[in-house]
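Go through this chain for my students:
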Amino acid sequence: MSDVAFTMSFCHHTTLELLPEKQKKFRCRHCHLTLDGEELGDGCCPECFERSGAKHYEFEEMEPINEEGARYRCEECGAIVKSA
């Protein structure tokens, strides 16, 4: 058994850090690039602009994966813990 697996199995997860919720994503209707909302910048697709110089503003909003409860990362062993 490796030291990492041995250590993780006996961790009591006493020091937890709250992880941020997943953000909505947007997919370009032209090139299908998927971006987080904050990555859009001025609102045009950066991939389309880089390829052709065209500024496309048409995106489909994609819902984040529905996860119930909050997620935490144990600062001691790195495990992800989900609340019920």
The chain is about 15% helix and 25% strand.
